[in-house]
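Deliverable D5.2: sample structural annotation.
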Amino acid sequence: MKKFCLGFLLISNFLSAQDLKNAPYKNSELSIKERVENLISLMTLEEKIGQLTTPLGWKMYNKEAGSKASLSELYKEEIKNRHIGGLWGLLRADPWTQKTLETGLHPKEAAKITNAIQKYAIENSRLGIPLLLEEEAMHGHMAVGTTVFPTAIGQASTWNPDLIKKMAHVIAKEIRAQGSNTAYGPIIDIAREPRWSRVEETFGEDPYLIAEMGKSMVTGFQGSHESDLKSNEHVAATLKHFAAYGVSEGGHNGAAVHIGQRDLFQNYMYPVKEAVDNGVMSVMTAYSSIDGVPSTAHKNLLTNILKEKWGFKGFVISDLASIEGLLGDHHIVDTEEDAAAMAMNAGVDVDLGGNGYDDALIDAVNAGKVAEERIDEAVRRILTVKFKLGLFENPYANEKQAEKIVRNSEHIELAREVARQSITMLKNEDNILPLNKELQNIAVIGSNADMQYNQLGDYTAPQSEENIITVLEGIQHKMPNANIEYVKGTAVRDTTQTNIPAAVEAAKNAEVAIVVLGGSSARDFKTEYLETGAATISSKEDQVLSDMESGEGYDRSTLNLMGKQLELLQAVVATGTPTVLVLIKGRPLLLNWPAENVPVILDAWYPGQEGGSAIADVIFGDFNPAGRLPVSVPKSLGQIPVYYNYWFPNRRDYVETDAKPLYPFGYGLSYSEFKYSDLKVATSGKGRNTKIEISLKISNTSKVDGDEVIQLYIRDMVSTVLSPVKQLRAFERVSIKAGETKTVQFELLPKELSLFDTEMKQKVQAGEFKLMIGASSEDIRLETTFKIPETIILSK
């Protein structure tokens, strides 16, 4: 802290006469609660607020190309003057941080620097408190040389929570191996606004699917037991963004959110509650506001609901600069001191960025605007997480192991498997796929066919060229004896990089044309960034437009394929050569023309580093696709929002088109065919112990082994408040061999049948429910009904 404090000097002198080495908080035999309380009792106000300060980590070391990394003078000043409690993005590398493959940290270097960071903090601070080192980690650790998985929208397309738990565990291993200890994820925002720039970071539009994926991420990161956190394989998870961030007005990132209280709790808070009940250790606020109250100042949600009613024991952290945003963006206060006081009193424990609390919070405490007891509560939460992680006993990484663990062969293979399971086949006219491996002439065309960073998504660090397999490379590896002609044809956005005649000529000379189009969240070093890290869309004087049309800050007003991509596709299809369209992108796009005119469409979202191999596996039949859409694909902008689980009444058609999406939630095709039969439902128990047990049989009636994603939807037939026309309440991805029949079982509990009534009481209302089971939200194969004989109160 910049302010001189006589009290600190007196306490410091007093404690220097004691043997701090024997202070109770250093005794691992004591309970965490005892250790935390002792440590807090020894801290000054400045030290406490320092623990709530999390500056930008990449500024804390220096490294020039070809040289060794070393601690920066800024870091030493932060420890001396501000007593900081953590760092965000110490190992982050990207155009915003200006850390490259040469100036960023590779795994072994990363372990050395994190060890040096911790050692300096412990040895050069009065109380020797280790740091929380917090990293972006939604689809892989955002650091140089790590494993890059598909982005969250692709992860959700797997409909396989167990697989995503394995993925999260691998990400945690890689983070911990390099010495960091906290992961940002899961993101549980509901994406019902495809114009929004961050759809790719979400698990889609459905609260239940999001909750199941979110819980898997939390368990993968943190382990199944609290003791797992002290291992070298797990990290603390940070859920974001709290709350209802994904439906901002007009699709503008961080803009106002207009939803009712019932919608908020029935849908948007559902996956949050599930993650909290699953033990998530940190929650991040959102930039947006809900009904006029900024999330970072929302005391009712942060304190009354999250901490008190739900019993959340972890800490709340602001999103980057969102405390300052109460002043500069939302304009609900007129001083930095009042912004700090409002956020702290609302329930924000930790300041991400390090500029929101600091002296402003000290001034607020001294002015009586914030009670020191509230500061103690915030510090108590952050210290508890540090003790649970075992940082006081073992804050260091094994430098020799980092390179062996990060991006090892097992992790690479898992990235390929997640990518394969995420690929969703939207169309396969006349069973063109899988392609025959005897093909001799193949044209590979398109803006994303050989663009490494375009297939990785936002929040990705620079990676060595040999670490990424593009679609072109995947096909070349798969078909080494074929004549493969590659023509880019056009860029995602820029129209000066267009050569459609060359693409047409390549298609004419080929037996099949594989056209890879879509979007990009690839940042470049020319892009300008806001203080929060979001990109700006101005190209200013650049001669060539960046491909980036998605990713944080890149909200859109249309959903068409940008640039001349559609023109390229139309020209290739016009040659008469069988055409396979592969889409690599971060949000739903308008696909009306392709759906009508292109025989094969595969949606790969952003498939990660192994995306090219995974796509080739599907195209040539080495993997049978079973991905399912986690979001609805609209036919026009005028339909938005077009999510499947809207409240009654049923939607009417428009003058120009019907109200249905082009492709519905849960949709996806396979090389196999499946038959559903023998649905049985049994109800047992009473009150909160009520169980609905469901079983059915699934038969693979084809000659191809495959996976089927069985989806269970319900409808409350009569309720005192509006309820959805249908809502997902169970699913399972099942592998079934050709000719085989399997029995699938589900269990519904009162929670899955509940709603919030007119008085905001959560209950299951007595009456009839419709049960619908099928292959998508629109492809229902089996139906029946069951009754709940009595109203069941879940919460008041």
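Annotation notes: The longest strand covers residues 674-684. The radius of gyration is 27 Å.
The annotation will be released with the project's public dataset once the embargo ends.
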